[in-house]
């Protein structure tokens, strides 16, 4: 009689690691899913100027991020950061960059350029690799060089077709890549860093909102619908960022790298099939080039040589 192979019982450490990976996957999936469907919310507030929406995103994110820090017991990090001029200056810079990113995104969705935003976030990981090579001297693999060249070719196709650079895509890609690069230099955790950024931005945003309302230009008190829509800007901003922070901590870099394509894929589908935006031959060629580039980039993550 043949003996049945006995599967070794996983150790407590292996079981905990597997459970952590599953939790991390669900956190990251939730984050990218929420980011993917964010255009539906942005379309609902399209009647409100983009800068006003961004101001409310910042303002109503503060209590959510603050409550999370209290729950995690991480308030000491914030007190230390507030006593460090260098850290405050770095956080102010990253806050300014992410504000540009948010403003561009809100404006683009309101002006029927959702497909361009999806392209920007597809390009983003390739821009991040390029910045790493330029700013940090990281050596690019052949696959990464080809991927970046394909991304440049995709931008060239859209430029020729439209008669101008796809500036929405490029601004989103480069601003988010720059934010990610500088954010790594901020010596605090992701939740603390996010709270510090919105805390720095909240006073000017509050002042701007008060000025709008007192001069009759604001939309917060226009209707009960606007009140709830703008209050929801806080959770819509903070919750996916918080989920992503927890997911990234529990997952391998390569897993997060693969999952980051979920959001722009959903965004592109919403732009074409729900918002009825144009997706012509030039878009098909450009997106095809980007998808090939991302396949090469992903392959290089799994099989390329690690520094």
Descriptive report:
The protein is an all-alpha fold. 80% of the residues lie in helices and 0% in strands. Helix 1 (12-44) packs parallel to helix 12 and helix 2 crosses helix 4 (85-110). The radius of gyration is 21 Å and the shape is globular.
| DSSP helical segment count | 13
Helix proportion? over 70%
| Shape type | globular
Whole-number tally of structural domains: 1
**Biggest beta sheet summary:** none
Q: Spans with pLDDT under 50 lasting ≥5 residues?
A: none
Compute the number of strand runs. 0
Tell me the span between the first and last alpha carbons.
50 Å
Mean pLDDT across the residues is 87
Question: What amount of the residues lies in strands?
Answer: under 5%
SSE run: HHHHHHHHHHHHH
By secondary-structure content and strand pairing, the structural class works out as: mainly alpha
Radius of gyration using CA atoms only? 21 Å
Strands, helices and their partners?
Layout (H helix, E strand, L loop, with lengths): L11 H33 L5 H23 L2 H8 L2 H26 L3 H23 L5 H21 L4 H17 L6 H25 L9 H8 L1 H18 L2 H7 L2 H13 L6 H23 L4
């Amino acid at each position: 009689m043949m003996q049945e192979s006995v599967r070794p019982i996983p150790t407590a450490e292996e079981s905990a690691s597997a459970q952590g990976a599953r939790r991390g996957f669900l956190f990251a999936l939730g984050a990218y899913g929420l980011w993917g469907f964010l255009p539906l919310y942005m379309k609902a507030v399209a009647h409100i100027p983009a800068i006003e929406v961004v101001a409310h995103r910042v303002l109503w994110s503060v209590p959510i991020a603050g409550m999370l820090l209290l729950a995690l017991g991480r308030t000491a990090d914030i007190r230390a950061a507030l006593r460090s001029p260098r850290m405050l200056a770095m956080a102010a810079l990253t806050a300014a960059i992410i504000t540009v990113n948010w403003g561009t995104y809100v404006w683009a969705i309101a002006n029927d350029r959702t497909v361009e935003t999806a392209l920007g976030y597809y390009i983003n990981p390739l821009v991040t690799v390029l910045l790493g090579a330029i700013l940090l001297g990281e050596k690019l693999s052949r696959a990464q060089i080809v991927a970046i060249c394909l991304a440049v070719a995709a931008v060239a196709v859209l430029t020729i077709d439209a008669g101008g650079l796809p500036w929405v895509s490029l601004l989103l890609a480069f601003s988010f890549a720059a934010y990610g690069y500088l954010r790594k230099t901020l010596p605090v955790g992701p939740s603390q860093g996010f709270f510090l950024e919105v805390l720095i931005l909240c006073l000017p945003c509050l002042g701007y909102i008060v000025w709008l309302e007192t001069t009759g230009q604001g939309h917060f008190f226009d209707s009960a619908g606007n009140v709830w829509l703008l209050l929801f800007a806080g959770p819509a901003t903070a919750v996916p960022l918080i989920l992503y922070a927890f997911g990234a901590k529990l997952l391998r870099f390569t897993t997060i790298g693969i999952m980051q394509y979920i959001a722009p894929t959903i965004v592109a589908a919403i732009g074409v099939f729900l918002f009825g935006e144009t997706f012509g031959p030039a878009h098909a060629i450009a997106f095809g080039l980007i998808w090939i580039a991302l396949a090469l980039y992903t392959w290089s993550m799994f099989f390329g040589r690690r520094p």
